Structures are given as C-alpha cells and as structure tokens.
Amino acid sequence: MTRLIVFVLVIIGLVSLTYLNGFKSMPRSNQAFDYKTYKIEQDDKQKVLEEIEHKRLAALEPKEEVIVVKAVFKVDLNTEGLRRGNKLYSKCIVCHGKLGEGKKSQNAPKIGGQFEQYIVTQIKNIKSGIRVNKVMNPYVKRLSVQDINDLGEYIAKLPW
Ligand code: HEC
C-alpha cells in the first residue's frame, strides 16, 4: 500500500515538474499593458472587418441595369410646309445643328422648338438688314416669304 502511495506521489511530482518547466519556458514580457496601442489595434481590426462586410453587402445588392435609350427625333412631315421647311433647313445645319440645338463653335444659337412667329420675324429681319447678321445673311438673302414661313414651321417643330 505504502509503495503504491509513494509511486502515485512520484508520478504526480513528475507530471507537475514537466508542466512547471513548460510554464517557465513560456515567453513573457514585462511590458506594461498599453491600452492606447491595444485600442488602435482593435480599431484597425474592426475597420478591416467593416470593409469586408461592406464589400459582401455590395456584392449581394442587385446591380442596377442602365438602359441607354437613344431617342431618335424625327419631325412628322405631314404638311407641305414641313416638307419644304425640312429641305430648306439642310442649309442651316452647319451652324444651328440637325435639331436646331445650336453650335457654340459657330456662335449659332439654339433655335429648335422656338416659337414659329419669332423665327419668321428674325429671318425676315436678318434678310432685310434690320437685324445685322453678316454670317447668316448669304444663307437667307435668296429665301422667299414662303421659304421663311416653311422654315419657321419646321424649326418650331424641332425639340426645345
Ligand atoms: C454660318 C452660320 C449660320 C448659318 C448657315 C445659319 N445661321 Fe442662323 N444664326 C447664325 C448666328 C451666328 C446667329 C446669331 C447671330 C446674332 O448674334 O445675332 C444666328 C441666328 C439665327 C436666328 C435668330 C435666333 C434668335 O434666337 O434670335 C434664326 C431664327 C436663325 N439663325 C435661323 C437660321 C436659318 C433658318 C438658317 C438656314 C437658312 C440659318 N440660320 C443658317 C449662324 C448661322
């Protein structure tokens, strides 16, 4: 019986010795716990986690599909005046643009969609010289009253 007790004690002793030895060789430092550094480290980790979460959520969101609709604008040439106006307007496109949107490089203003009466008056005034417009004058001086009215009708139908 005594032998058994001694044997058990020796075993316990050996086990504790190995355990304590291991504890002794564990690395440790005397550095004081620095809360500031700890906090910064934790915050950095938090940030990284948040970023990952953000990316995960972004990937889950359904992507919006952008549908590009290019509207093709066409004036419905349903009157004789509009048909003539459309033909006559081909000479004005260089400066005022296909849709009468104007061209900055030419200093030509937007005229598409302007009131018909206003356009007619301006062209008449430019033709007669009441309104001085040297660049446009050669294009309007041979226009008849009918031509000017048809141009006005057509230009007024262009998008504003
Ligand atoms: C060489 C370039 C050029 C061409 C071609 C041209 N225009 Fe112009 N147009 C101008 C410029 C520049 C002005 C602005 C002049 C000013 O400051 O008064 C103008 C002004 C106008 C205006 C007055 C706009 C407003 O808001 O007061 C009308 C209307 C007009 N043009 C119609 C026409 C028509 C119709 C034609 C074709 C027959 C034509 N233009 C061809 C350059 C041009």
Number of helices: 7
Molecules bound to protein: heme C
Tell how many strands the DSSP assignment holds. 0
Round the mean pLDDT to the nearest integer and report it: 90
Biggest sheet, in brief? none
Give an account of the 3D structure.
With 160 residues, the chain is mostly helical. The protein has a domain at 80-157: Cytochrome Bc1 Complex, Chain D, domain 2 (Orthogonal Bundle), CATH 1.10.760.10. Helices cover 58% and strands 0% of the residues. α3 (80-89) crosses α7. The longest helix is centred in the first third of the chain and has 26 residues, at 35-60. It is rod-shaped. The N and C termini lie far apart (112 Å). The mean pLDDT is 90. Heme C (HEC) binds next to α4, α5 and α6. The site of heme C has 19 residues, from α4, α5 and α6.
Write the layout of secondary structure elements.
Blueprint: H1 2-24, H2 35-60, H3 80-89, H4 93-96, H5 116-128, H6 137-140, H7 145-157
Helix pairs in contact: 3-7, 5-7
Heme C is lined by residues 91-92, 94-96, 106-109, 111, 119, 122-123, 133, 135-136, 139-140, 151.
Task: Write out key terms for the chains shown.
binds heme C; rod-shaped; 160 residues; mainly alpha; Cytochrome Bc1 Complex, Chain D, domain 2
In brief, what are we looking at here?
The chain is mostly helical. 58% of the residues lie in helices and 0% in strands.
